[in-house]
Amino acid sequence: MSRQDRQPAEHEPSDKPEEVVSRRRAFTLAAGAAAAAGAAALAAADPRGAAAEDGNSFELGFDFNSASHTTGLSLSIDAASGTDVMKLETDQAGRALLGVTKNSDEPAIEGDNNQGGPGVKGLGTFGPGVVGDSTAGDGVQALSHNDQHYALYAQNTSAGIAVFGASSGGAGVVGQSNSGDGMQALTGGSAARALFANASSSAPAVDASNGGSGAGVAASSSSGPGVSATTASTSEPAVHGTNTASDLTKGGGPGIVGESTLSDAVRGFSHSSTNAGVFGSNDNATAGNGVTGFSQSGYGVTAVSATSDALIAVAESSTGRGVLASVASSAASIEGDNAGSGAGVLGSNTSKSGGGPGVSGTSATSDGVQGSTSDTSHSGVSGSNTASEKGGPGVSGSSLTGHGVFGASQQGGDGAGVFGVNNGTGPGMVGGSSKGDGVQGVTGDDGHSGVYGVNGADGPGVTGESLHGGPGVIGKSAGGPGVSATSQTGDALLAVAVGAAARGVVATATSSAASVEGDNAGSGAGIFGANTGSGPGVAGDGSSGGPGVLARNTAGGFALHVVGTVQFQGVAGGGTINANSDNAVVSNPNVTANSVISVTLMADPGTVGHGPFALTTLQWVERKVGTGFTIHLNAAAQNNTPFAYLIVEP
After folding, report:
1. What is the dihedral of CA 35, 40, 41, 43, to 10 degrees?
2. Gap between the Cα atoms of 202 and 205, Å rounded
3. Is 86 helix (H, G, I), strand (E, B) or coil?
4. Is 619 in contact with 632 (CB distance < 8 Å)?
5. DSSP-based three-state secondary structure for 207
6. Would you call 418 exposed, middle or buried from its count of C-beta atoms within 10 A (0-12, 13-18, 19+)?
7. Exposed, middle or buried, 164 (CB in 10 Å: 0-12/13-18/19+)?
8. Residue 41 pLDDT
């Protein structure tokens, strides 16, 4: 019969271990005085067999060394089923049956049932049905040679325990198998546990150890959790895994490992608003990660939140970073993707004083920070400063030896490399340098300018200002004009000097060409100078030896056309020839050996005698280089005669 068909004992044994111990001797099979007398009577009988009154037989033998007899006492009966073959009973305190053997390989009492029933069955009205007691071996030993049955089967048809093990110092129950499970617990109840362990000490309720490479504890479930742990402690976890590997050269394994074929290997849930679903901690004083994620082809770590930040990283060290990402590929170390209108990556520094940047990028061989967009109305990199007072710049660039800010617009577009806009009253772009140019523009195209300014109103396109003694604007060119000015309807170039001794335009050249040249293809002047005050409209200065003003016409027209009076300084002047003198000396350092000196007598010097030759006239001019000249008359003047002169160079 199977173990499910076996009937329970009439009286259930007590499940209390103290009763098992106190009644152990009551159930030891021992004979009293009457049993001893019966044994002596049987020993006196000699026959090997005798017929019983009801047709049954028994055999009694004492030759234990005989090879033909292996049983000392053999009883058989052909009675109806349920009749006891032998019943031993005592009303005394002794044992009803005592089995003793000197063979170390055989049991003292053995029961054999070749029909499927139990070999030995013990019934206890108040105590245990079967008790095994040994001072050196196993108290009870069960063996089975059938792989479909158990060596020991215990059944409790009530709510008690089927098997209970108690030990004063060792394990209460030990299971061991050479190839199968050492111990297996099964339950058919929907709410019952296959194995329940309870401890009231600091030791674990269940402690499993594997001296090989297998798991210390393995649990599986077809639909529920493989392992479920619960604790009411406020400081200890429900599950605690420890790896005690201590060989630093080989490294240790993880404390807990989760593995899943189709779902999360490890999953943590927390119902607290201030605690994490999964929390990792590393208390190594030098290094080590609190949480590490690894994937062969997917994300190493994924963070998802339904209503708040998906991932938050906090570094409590003054030099630690909230997030450190490192890759060895061409992809970005950190990439943010936002399908809405927010930023893909947002960096924020909330320090009130002495804080660092919200986002900082560093590269040993490439751009420290790079921004890219495919939208025509947005920037690759955008900077904003929201200070309500006069604050810092929206975008700031700094370089030890190169450009502080560099902007480039690729071929095919007409956008600016760097474009600045100010919606208030300040400049759209400002460049400053302590030793170099504040703003510098460079182009490689013949039809464009290095610096180009446009004013959509009536103001100037480009304005330069120098706060000290330097020029406001300087233009340089290796082959073309240093500054080129063009206007459709107004003045191409307007220069205004507001200082008392300042000049509107100053042009300097070190070549044979003119410092200032005016070319007019119409009927107007090439160069036109106007002074609305008391100074000259155009002034020329040739202090280095050349002419102050050069007028030239190679087409046959006037080289110099003057409308109005002409005034000369230094080379024109006047004097007086005194009466009774035939000469006058004029001091003028501008006289050269080639000077042409024109003298005009401004009055009649008088006559000498009568006749046509009696007139006194200018005879000649004697040049004295570097000092002046002397005017000579043909005769002494009769009157004080004023004169005027003009010195010109051929």
Report:
1. 130
2. 9
3. coil
4. yes
5. coil
6. middle
7. middle
8. 46
Q: Given the structure tokens 């290095």, which residue do they identify?
A: 450
pLDDT at 609: 62
For residue 275, the 8-state DSSP code is S
Distance (Å, whole) CA 64 – CA 66: 5
Nearest to 323 by CA among 341, 310, 306, 339: 310
- Beta pairing partners, 73: 60
pTM: 0.43
- Between CA 562 and CA 574 the distance in angstroms is 22
Return the structure tokens found at 118: 């139990």
Beta-bridged to residue 60, according to DSSP, are 73
Strands (E) in 465-609, as ranges, are 572-577, 583-587, 596-601
Q: What is the pLDDT of residue 73?
A: 59
Contact by Cβ (8 Å): 520, 528: no
The number of angstroms, rounded, from the C-alpha of 198 to the middle of its chain's C-alpha atoms is: 48
CA distances from 68 to 65, 73, 340 (A): 9, 14, 98
Sign of CA dihedral 192, 193, 194, 197: negative
H/E run at residue 35: helix 33-44
Running DSSP on this structure, what letter comes out for residue 38? Answer: H
Q: What is the pLDDT of residue 180?
A: 74
pLDDT the model gives residue 573: 93
Question: Can you read off the two tokens belonging to residue 622?
Answer: 């004697």
Nearest to 403 by CA among 358, 440, 454: 440
Pick the closest to residue 601 from 577, 630, 572 (CA basis). 577
pLDDT of residue 31: 35
Residue 412 — left, alpha, or beta (φ > 0 → left; ψ -120 to 50 → alpha)?
left
Q: What's phi and psi for 585, nearest 5 deg?
A: -100, 130
Calculate the alpha carbon distances from 304 to 74, 259, 289, 475 in Å.
79, 21, 21, 60
Q: From the CB of residue 214, how many other CB atoms can be counted at a distance below 10 Å? A: 7
- Tell which residue, 405, 419, 409, has the closest CA to residue 452: 419
Contact 301, 307 (CB under 8 A): no
Spatial distance between the Cα atoms of 339 and 359, rounded to a whole number of angstroms: 21
Nearest CA-CA partner of 614 in 642, 634, 599, 600: 634
Mean pLDDT by 10 residues, the chain (650 residues): 44 43 34 43 45 48 51 56 64 69 75 75 74 77 76 76 77 77 72 73 76 76 79 81 74 78 85 85 82 85 85 79 80 81 81 77 82 80 78 78 78 73 80 79 80 81 78 77 78 77 76 78 82 80 75 85 83 93 94 95 82 79 96 92 93
User: Pairing relation of β-strands 596-601 and 641-648?
Assistant: antiparallel
User: Considering only CA atoms, which of 250, 244, 314 is closest in space to residue 276?
Assistant: 314
pLDDT of residue 218: 77
616 close to 634: Cβ distance less than 8 angstroms:
yes
